[in-house]
């Protein structure tokens, strides 16, 4: 009988932790984010509205440098994210690639590649 009570007590202690650990792993990125970007070409603060559907990211990118750009085909895997933008600057087509990690449900950080024309880093906070 004592063994049964001990097993039941252990089960009660373990189950809530497992459920909370699973909840921590489920990070929802959908929403509006303020990015702070530093590149070889300078700095910027684009606003990115992300839409997450399972492992897929899409959204809208808004900045002074690249204007308004919709994107799709991004991904979320574990704590890694990636998305690309196709933009045109002075008649030259560029593919901008953001790759990063999810720090918390409300913060991201990573690198940005400016289509081979430069690179940099970013941080992002949910608005």
Strand order of the largest sheet: 1-3-4-5-6-7-8-9
The percentage helix is: 10-25%
Q: Secondary-structure element order, as H and E?
A: HEEEEEEEEE
Task: Please give the number of β-strands.
Answer: 9
**Which parts are unreliable, with pLDDT below 50 for 5 consecutive residues or more?**
4-24
Could you report the average pLDDT, rounded to the nearest whole number? 85
Report strand %.
over 45%
Tell me the major beta sheet.
Answer: 8 strands, antiparallel, barrel
The coarse overall form would be globular
Relevant CATH superfamily: Quinohemoprotein amine dehydrogenase alpha subunit, domain 2
The CATH class turns out to be Mainly Beta
* Span of the ends, CA to CA: 54 Å
Secondary structure class reads alpha+beta
| CATH architecture label name | Beta Barrel
The structural domain count equals: 1
Q: What is the helix tally?
A: 1
CATH topology descriptor: Lipocalin
Radius of gyration: 20 Å
Task: Detail the topology: elements first, then pairings.
Layout: H1 2-25, E1 31-39, E2 42-44, E3 47-53, E4 56-63, E5 67-77, E6 80-89, E7 92-104, E8 107-114, E9 119-126
Antiparallel strand pairs: 1-2, 1-3, 1-9, 3-4, 4-5, 5-6, 6-7, 7-8, 8-9
Architecture overview:
By secondary structure, the protein is an alpha+beta fold. It has a single domain (28-126), classed as Quinohemoprotein amine dehydrogenase alpha subunit, domain 2 (Lipocalin, Beta Barrel). It is 19% helix and 61% strand. It has one helix and nine strands. Strands 1-3-4-5-6-7-8-9 form an eight-stranded antiparallel beta barrel. A hairpin with a 2-residue loop joins strand 6 and strand 7. The longest helix is centred in the first third of the chain and has 24 residues, at 2-25. The chain is globular.
